[in-house]
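Marked as duplicate of an earlier ticket. Keeping the data here for the record.
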Amino acid sequence: NFMSVPCITMGAPPIRDGREAISTQPIAQTSRTLVYLPVSIFLTTIHSLEHCRASLRRMHFGFFVLNQWSPDEPMGPRIKEGLEQVRAARRAGFDLLCTGQHFLSHPFQQPATIPYLARLAGEAEGMAIAPLVLLLPLLQPVEVAESIATLDAMTDGRVVMGVGLGYREEENIAFGSPSKERLSRLNESLALIKSLWTQTEVE
């Protein structure tokens, strides 16, 4: 069972008429409500986080680590900056660490999602870890099941798996996944992943 959770993006595109854009993303079923805060307002938010917690006792806060950079920038230093951001987010009391997934991200460069999260998780003690979202119709479900299970074991059961349909035609073409088959592929993959996680044998 999956649900959509409001994702409020503040200070990041798309913004229309000076207002924050509100979108939804399907993520694995969870009791948490997440507010994603971009790096651009992260530091100004730290000081008000405890006040927010006092007012919103049931709300959990997630921190999205940017993962797209100019091709002119060396990836190594950008990854180290991400580690510093995670340490700051942990100290500030954020509950969840997440990053996204895309392929062929021209004009940007982008690290592979699961290895990047695995490295960031080493600095995120006590925080939930989430790929938000994996483009499941493009991926091999057996590999996803094993990768997520491994990441979950590495983080003592703190992984929340988020999945999405995707929307970029260049990704669909590159993976041989027709756009019209996205929903059926996603449902089939979810069923298989769940079976691999819960059953001794899967036919």
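See parent ticket for discussion. The chain is about 40% helix and 20% strand.
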